């Protein structure tokens, strides 16, 4: 044992020490929080914008960095993202790392080109590229968007996009879109990416959530708007959906991340006013797809729960079941009508659907090859789709001693 003790001890020591060989000091690294991708002036070239966080801002060392910017923005022209990552080191003293990367902004011009699919596909080879990074398409070049986005209440870029992503789960105005889902739906399915812009052209005649980024009638606040979605098919942008259409696209999925959303409907008792409601999910959306017939048939049942948020007309819906039924019928009719218009638009303009119904249809086939030969995208264009909303009213807002329903009906 003494003969082999010394070699064994040295071997164990070497194994422990090798873990430190690639250790990097934090102060020597430059953490990229946002990447912007744009089409270059020359063919097959792109412009990559790196927004690099300043680690000293909003920390205990902030006193030492009072005159420093919260981030450094650098743009490099290269043939791909990884080449740009190397070239940017020619002007930066710290080593670039994507370990904290959360957001990728893609200029609309590049998003509409086949080149984008090749660029983002080759970039995922880098082990630091996180598939959880959210993807946003900007109406203007991504470089201009990143420079214009200077939020008033959040100086740290990575925190800004993190908080915005949390808001999307509560509003549904923007889909939760990340690289992982993008790569899952690059064959024939439609992928929805967030849509944003700093170029504002307000539309004052629109109602509620039927806005697209840049159209919200807003004055003051942050310089950018994020509402709606960019429709991508086979890795290329082919159109847009406004805020209302994006919300419906999420509700019509069997599983979605939308918690609640606030919207308005015409008051059925006084159509001069609108009534504001909080729409929450009930049980999961039920989706049935019949592929044994031609054209295929899709039946969708969406259960939703309503809470009255504000009632401008001051109509009391607690006094009569007839009034409550009128409200439920109005919401059901409007939701089904809007869903029908969205589905008709999808069928006419695109080859595919963003509702993930293909996952249900795929279960009807024995093999993946059989499903691919069926060509769900082409079959969906002529499918018979039936959407029904099951509406339940949970509450009618805050009331001071609301009268009981039976008592009021008896008095009437």
| Mean of residue pLDDT values | 82
Structural class determined from secondary elements: alpha/beta
Main pleated sheet: 9 strands, mixed
Number of strands: 14
Task: Give the C-alpha Rg.
Answer: 26 Å
Give the amount of beta strand, in percent: 25-35%
CA distance, first residue to last residue: 100 Å
Count of all domains: 2
The percent of residues in helical segments reads: 25-40%
How many DSSP helices? Answer: 13
User: Which blocks of ≥5 consecutive residues have pLDDT under 50?
Assistant: 400-412
Order of helices and strands: HEEEHEEHHEHHHEEEHEEEEHHHHEH
- The 3D shape can be described as globular
Family: Belongs to the GerABKC lipoprotein family.
Protein name: Ger(X)C family germination protein
Main location: membrane
InterPro entries: GerAC_N, Spore_GerAC-like, Spore_GerAC-like_C, Spore_GerAC_C_sf
Protein described:
This protein has 2 domains: 26-251, no CATH class; 253-412, Nutrient germinant receptor protein C, domain 3 (GMP Synthetase, Chain A, domain 3). Strand 12 and strand 13 (297-311) form a beta hairpin. The chain is built from 13 helices and 14 strands. The termini are far apart. The strands form 2 sheets. Strands 1, 2, 3, 4, 5, 6, 7, 8 and 9 form a 9-stranded mixed β-sheet that branches. Strands 10, 11, 12, 13 and 14 form a 5-stranded mixed β-sheet that branches. Helices cover 31% and strands 28% of the residues. It has helices at residues 2-17, 81-87, 108-111, 115-123, 142-148, 157-171, 179-184, 243-251, 321-349, 358-362, 368-374, 376-380, 405-411; strands at 29-39, 46-53, 71-78, 95-97, 103-107, 134-138, 190-197, 225-233, 236-241, 260-267, 270-281, 286-290, 297-311, 384-395. The chain is of the alpha/beta class and 412 residues long. 34% of the residues are buried. InterPro entries: GerAC_N, Spore_GerAC-like, Spore_GerAC-like_C, Spore_GerAC_C_sf. It comes from Bhargavaea ullalensis. Residues 23-188 form the Spore germination protein N-terminal domain. It is a lipid-anchor. Belongs to the GerABKC lipoprotein family.
């Amino acid at each position: 044992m003494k003969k082999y003790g010394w070699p064994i001890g040295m071997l164990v020591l070497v194994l422990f020490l090798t873990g430190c060989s690639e250790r990097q000091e934090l102060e020597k690294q430059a953490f990229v929080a946002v990447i912007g991708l744009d089409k270059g002036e020359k063919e097959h070239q792109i412009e990559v914008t790196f927004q690099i966080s300043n680690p000293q801002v909003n920390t205990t060392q902030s006193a030492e960095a009072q005159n420093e910017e919260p981030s450094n923005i650098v743009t490099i022209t290269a043939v791909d993202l990884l080449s740009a990552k190397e070239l940017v080191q020619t002007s930066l003293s710290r080593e670039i790392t994507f370990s904290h990367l959360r957001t990728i902004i893609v200029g609309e011009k590049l998003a509409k080109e086949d080149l984008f699919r090749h660029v983002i596909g080759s970039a995922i080879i880098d082990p630091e590229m996180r598939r959880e990074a959210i993807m946003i398409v900007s109406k203007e070049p991504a470089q201009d968007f990143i420079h214009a986005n200077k939020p008033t209440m959040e100086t740290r870029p990575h925190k800004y996009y993190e908080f915005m992503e949390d808001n999307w789960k509560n509003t549904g105005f923007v889909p939760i879109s990340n690289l992982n889902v993008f790569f899952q739906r690059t064959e024939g399915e439609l992928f929805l990416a967030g849509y944003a812009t700093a170029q504002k052209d307000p539309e004052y005649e629109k109602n509620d959530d039927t806005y697209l980024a840049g159209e919200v009638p807003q004055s003051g606040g942050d310089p950018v708007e994020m509402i709606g979605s960019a429709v991508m098919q086979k890795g290329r942008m082919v159109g847009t959906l406004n805020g209302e259409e994006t919300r419906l696209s999420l509700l019509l999925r069997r599983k979605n991340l939308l918690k609640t959303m606030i919207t308005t409907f015409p008051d059925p008792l006084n159509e001069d006013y609108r009534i504001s409601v909080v729409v929450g999910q009930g049980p999961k959306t039920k989706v049935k797809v019949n592929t044994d017939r031609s054209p295929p048939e899709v039946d969708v049942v969406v259960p939703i729960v309503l809470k009255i948020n504000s009632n401008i007309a001051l109509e009391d819906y607690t006094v009569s079941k007839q009034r409550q039924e009128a409200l439920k019928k109005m919401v059901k009719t409007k939701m089904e009508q809007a869903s029908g218009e969205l589905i008709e638009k999808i069928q006419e303009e695109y080859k595919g659907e963003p509702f993930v119904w293909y996952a249900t249809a795929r279960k009807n086939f024995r093999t993946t090859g059989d499903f691919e030969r069926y060509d769900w995208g082409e079959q969906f264009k002529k499918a018979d789709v039936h959407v029904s909303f099951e509406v339940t009213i949970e509450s009618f807002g805050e009331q001071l001693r609301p009268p009981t329903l039976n008592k009021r009906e008896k008095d009437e």
